[in-house]
User: Fold this.
Amino acid sequence: MNILLLGEYSRFHNSLKEGLISLGHTVTIVGTGDAFKKYPVDISVAPTLVNANWLTTKIKNLVFTLTKRDLTALEIGYRFWKQREQLKGYDVVQLINSWSIRTTLPKEKKCIAFLEQHNKALFLSACGTDTPWVESLLHDTQLPYHMLTPYLKDASLANYYSPSLKYVTQKHKAHYAFLEKKVQAIIPTDMDYLIGLKGQKKVTDLIPTPINIERLHFHVAPIQEKIVIFHGINRSNYLKKGNDIFEEALRIVHKKYATHIEIITVESLPYADYINAYDKAHILLDQVYSHDQGYNALEAMAKGKVVFTGAGSHFKEHYQLTHTVAIDATPDPAHIASELEQLILHPERIKEIAHNARAFVEKYHDHVMIAQKYLDIWQKDT
Assistant:
């Protein structure tokens, strides 16, 4: 099959591409590279002009302040449309979410109509923030906590959460309804999205996130004088990921076990740097408000780290787990500190959990196996 993957974040589509190529298919990724993360894409629509230097960035920000016109979105739309002849003739087009091109919504709609007209079938991935998921978190979720919990507790955070809340504005809801009619199926990638999409039309069974295990060397760092704890921060998602809660937990643990631990904190690294920055760590703090693992967590698990992430009852029941593959990080600094303390006091558990984690990723997330699951759905509906 000839496959077009539209949009990229967290290296999801790159890993899927690698699995599909292993199975003999041709794959093209279109995207911006996701800002500072700089993920590889085959056809770039990155807004290189408006972000060329400090002056163009300042002009872009000034135009938005005065007119609310987003020059970044306009440039992305221009670059996508300019390269549209390369986006014809695919058997499958998969969009990473309903706003996968990242241009203005009228232009996005025009581009999607073009893709539908010139390709065989469209599919939608549910692997990030999108309209029905945000609606479920705001109104009818049964989850005890989630990404929007800080906002629901403090409405003054509305501006911070605007990138997520915009998906439930009337124009985005209308756009999602438009796209939903165009796609053959909607494919959730983890428990958070599966739960949020319950009852929605066209939703398939969960297909776990693909991880290219072949490129991730498993190594449990030997514990010498100190246990190394790694905390990666993306400032734009600071509250959504619960980085503030992790930092408070680290203060608690450091006060009690300063001579037993080393804490590494990094901020907003490109993906290629981030994946290597935690090599010497034993423990990685990923995110608090999830109920499954995202891409960064799964890669760290595959590399032999004990990861604090979503690993609670919904996750354990779905995979029928009887052993620990990751530490469930709840929005409670004292609880996280207690879990860290147990690992500090019982370091032999680190090696045990690390091996469990690697085996789990190999069993459920192998990128070739996952690629075949996508092919099964695509071929069924094309």
The chain has two domains: 2-210+366-380, 213-364.
